[in-house]
Design brief:
With 259 residues, the protein is an alpha/beta fold. The protein has a single domain, classed as P-loop containing nucleotide triphosphate hydrolases (Rossmann fold), CATH 3.40.50. The protein is 45% helix and 12% strand. The chain has a six-stranded parallel β-sheet, with helices on both faces. The chain is globular and about 45 Å long. The structure holds adenosine-5'-triphosphate and magnesium ion.
Length: 259
């Protein structure tokens, strides 16, 4: 991260929560402690906590969109979920600030601070940590991956995106981490069949050693519309096709994480 990015990131970090009516985040901003007042430590039940990072060196593949949607879906299924925005762009944080609900909990931090944040999250009985990462930031992404139980690599099915995936698959291979590629922003299925471009992308991705998730996420207006006022598609259009895709994706990931 360049010194300019660092400065921008710091200003975002401590501005977070101010004036938003969230005592937890205001407390966090004042004390510079990530989880002040979220829940008493005495509630710590030592339940195993899992961390899933969304990583792709290429920009715009859907890391933030899918991270937010998975966090909301997991929380709706009863898990205590912490979403960590490690991207200086702060897109997940901006979504959270537009959101009416304070859940899932969201904090910001550097990828290199993730281990410390995880320790605090574990003490406060979070069951799932989802980490949104920045593109083009191999040092920070590597730090996140190194602390994760699993990595999800979103990619669009277009050739330039597929070509760019090698840097991320090498990262997870180096660390010998469970990982899955998920095809995002795909043309929707036609009469329940995957369109050709999706099938071809699956074929092209066999060149990498990372498996491809059986669930593909379609390009649907609902994904971006829902985010406008801080919601996710499962809240915005609970019976819609996008919600069904997110439910299927989360079911697949939950099974993999053994949560
Ligand atoms: N499945 C989808 N359907 C429709 N729009 C989508 C979908 N996934 C992502 N988008 C849109 O594509 C754009 C990029 O998505 P997003 O910000 O989630 O990617 P990202 O990987 O987090 O980007 P960055 O690398 O810049 O952080 C956003 O405008 C988002 O609303
Ligand atoms: Mg993003």
């Amino acid at each position: 991260m360049s010194p300019g990015d660092m400065a921008k990131y710091e200003s975002l970090r401590w501005r977070f929560g101010e004036g938003q009516g969230s005592s937890a985040l205001i407390a966090m901003a004042r004390s510079k402690s990530w989880f002040s007042n979220l829940i008493p430590r005495s509630m710590n039940n030592q339940s195993p906590m899992k961390t899933l990072s969304l990583i792709a060196q290429k920009g715009g593949t859907g890391k933030t969109t899918l991270g937010i949607h998975l966090a909301v879906q997991a929380q709706r299924q009863g898990l205590r979920v912490l979403l960590i925005d490690t991207d200086p762009q702060g897109s997940a944080g901006a979504w959270w600030q537009r959101r009416a609900s304070a859940e899932p909990t969201l904090v910001t931090g550097l990828g290199t601070e993730l281990a410390e944040m995880q320790a605090q999250a574990r003490e406060r009985a979070f069951q799932l940590v989802i980490v949104d990462t920045a593109p083009h930031s191999s040092e920070q992404s590597r730090a996140c991956a190194a602390c994760s139980d699993a990595v999800l690599i979103p990619t669009r099915p277009a050739i330039l995106d597929l070509d760019a995936i090698g840097a991320t698959t090498e990262l997870v291979a180096d660390l010998d981490l469970p990982a899955q590629i998920v095809l995002n922003a795909c043309p929707p299925p036609i009469r329940a069949h995957e369109p050709r471009i999706v099938a071809e992308a699956r074929e092209a991705l066999t060149a990498y050693q990372v498996p491809v998730c059986p669930v593909a996420i379609s390009q649907r207006a609902a994904y971006s519309h829902a985010l406008i006022d801080g919601r996710a598609v499962v809240e915005f259009e609970a019976q819609g096709k996008a919600a069904a895709e997110i439910e299927a994706l989360w079911a697949d990931i939950r099974h993999g994480l053994e949560l």
